[in-house]
Amino acid sequence: MSDKDIETLSSKVVYENKWLKVREDKIRRASGNEGLYGVVEKPDFAIILPIDGDIVYLVEQYRYTVQQRLLEFPQGAWEDNPDADPKVLAAGELKEETGFTATEMHYVGFQYLAYGFCNQGYHIFVAKGLTQGEQKLDVEEEDLKIVPVHIKELESMITEGTIKDASTCNAYGLARLKGFI
Asked: How many C-alpha atoms does 59 have within 13 Å on its Cβ side?
């Protein structure tokens, strides 16, 4: 047994597309019991809190998996460059989704999305000193809308359950706890 609690005996990719890979690992636990573990592999992403005074900017888009239009902070990954510098990625995603450029990009921290089945994590940034430009949306984002919201309204939307994106709620909470907001 290795120094890990679970040893990987074998691994095979069972599905792959340009956004994700799903693999199935045969494992052995410290007790000697064997089993299977399904793992979703996705590149890390950046989530950005664009703030101008008491206004934060969310994006609204249709999320096919839950069949709803929902609000969230701008966020994304570059599948063609998964090792991109997180700050460069954050500035790029901010520009792409909102058209904003920021004179200040403050790093808040790193979190995992859902490490019970997925290796994806995310870097959280607060963007200030915003200048509006043109959006550069991907085809998958063609329905995306920018929604300005007062910070107090955002907090109500989070506590009332209107904002359902866990990364958005977590990013806001961590930024607030660390004094960025």
From this structure: 25
What are the helix (H) ranges across 99-150?
A: none
pLDDT in tens, 56-93: 999 999 999 899 999 999 999 988 888 899 999 999 99
Report the predicted TM-score, pTM, of the whole model to 2 decimal places.
0.91
Domains and CATH numbers, the chain: 6-41 (no CATH), 45-177 (3.90.79.10)
Give the three-class secondary structure for 70: strand
Q: What is the pLDDT of residues 120-133, one digit of tens each?
A: 999 999 999 999 99
The encoded tokens of residue 148 equal 């300005």
Nearest-angstrom CA–CA distance, 61 and 59: 7
Q: Is the dihedral of CA 62, 68, 71, 74 positive or negative?
A: negative
Cα 21 to the center of its chain, rounded Å: 17
**Nearest-5° Cα angle at 29, 23 to 30:** 150
Tell me how far apart the alpha carbons of residues 155 and 64 are, in angstroms, rounded to a whole number: 25
Helices in 67-124 by DSSP H: which ranges? 86-98
Residue 20, SS3? coil
